[in-house]
C-alpha cells in the first residue's frame, strides 16, 4: 500500500483577480517613482489608475468565483502601498519637503491613517454594517490628495502658496480615515436592475462633466464624498435622538 505523504498539499493562487491587484500596487509604486522624478501630474494620474484597478479586482473575483483569503490579504497590502504610502510620499515630495519635520508629520499622518483604516476594516468586515464604511475609505482619501495635486499642476498654481493648504488637507484625510464617521458604501444600489431613463441621462451628463475637466471634477467629487461622512453621521444621530423621545 502507498503511504500518504505528510507534506501539505501545495495551494495555488487565482491569477486573474491578483493581476488587477498587482497592477494597482504597481500604479502606487509608479506614483512614488514619478514624484521622485518631479513628474507630479503623472504621479496623481497613477493613483487614480490604482483606484480603478483596485475597484476591479474584487468584482472580477466575484464574477469568476475566484475569491480567496490570499486575495483579501494581498489586496490590503496593495491598498497600503497605493493609498497609504504613495499619497503621503507624493505630497511630501511635491509640497512638504521645505517644511522639515512638520512636512514629515503631515505625510506620516496620512500614511498611518491609511494603515489603521485598513486594519480596522479587516477586523470588522464580518460584523460591520454593509451599507456604510466606518471612516473615509483609503482610496477616496488618496483621490482627494491626488486630485488636489493634479488641479494645482494643471492650472500652474504656485506650490509655495498652497503648501499649508495641502498640509491641512493631508492631515485631514488621515484623520478622517480613522474617524467614526459613516460613509455610504453604495452596496445597496442594484446595478443589474432597471432604472428610470432620467437616471441614465444624469449618469451620462456626470461622466461628460468629468471628461471635460478630469482634475477639478474628480477632486470635487471625492471632496464632496469626504464631507458627506460627517453629514450622514449627524443625520443618523439626530434620527436616533428623535426615536428615543
Largest sheet: 2 strands, antiparallel
Q: End-to-end distance, in Å?
A: 75 Å
What average pLDDT do the residues reach? Answer: 87
Give the low-confidence spans: none
Task: Write a structural description.
The protein is mostly helical and 245 residues long. Strands 1-2 form a two-stranded antiparallel ribbon. It is globular and about 50 Å long. The model has no long low-confidence stretch (mean pLDDT 87). It is built from eight helices and two strands; from the N terminus they run ααααβααβαα.
Highlighted features:
single chain, 245 residues, mainly alpha, Four Helix Bundle (Hemerythrin (Met), subunit A), two-stranded antiparallel ribbon, 8 helices, 2 strands, 74% helix
List the SSEs and their pairings.
Blueprint: H1 15-36, H2 40-63, H3 69-96, H4 101-124, E1 132-134, H5 138-154, H6 159-177, E2 182-184, H7 197-212, H8 214-244
Antiparallel strand pairs: 1-2
Summary, kept brief:
The chain is mostly helical and 245 residues long.
